[in-house]
């Protein structure tokens, strides 16, 4: 019994480890952008690191932003993931900003068993998810 209690902290640390694995570079589901996710204090945040595919007519600045003062800021380098709290197996209660629509959604991040990242954006109780992958 004493051995079980001695191992319990180690097991709990191991169970919480996958949440930190979301850091690094990720290719979005449509393959158009590279997102760099890193630590931001006790949380994680993500920035657009690079455009991998330039879609015709796609703006290089945040033209859809509802705040007119922010419409000239470049999309490359922009923080699109912020405010996440760890839940042991992933990250919850964050925000994801979509520069293509200028909208911000509640978001969750969870590492899948295949090593990909499930990125969910939600409005009320309706969520849509994408599967992001590590660059090759």
TrEMBL record:
Keywords: Signal. Pfam families: DUF2147. Residues 24-134 form the DUF2147 domain. The keyword Signal applies. Residues 1-19 form the signal peptide. Coiled coil: none annotated. This is DUF2147 domain-containing protein. It comes from Allosphingosinicella humi. The lineage of its organism: Bacteria, Pseudomonadati, Pseudomonadota, Alphaproteobacteria, Sphingomonadales.
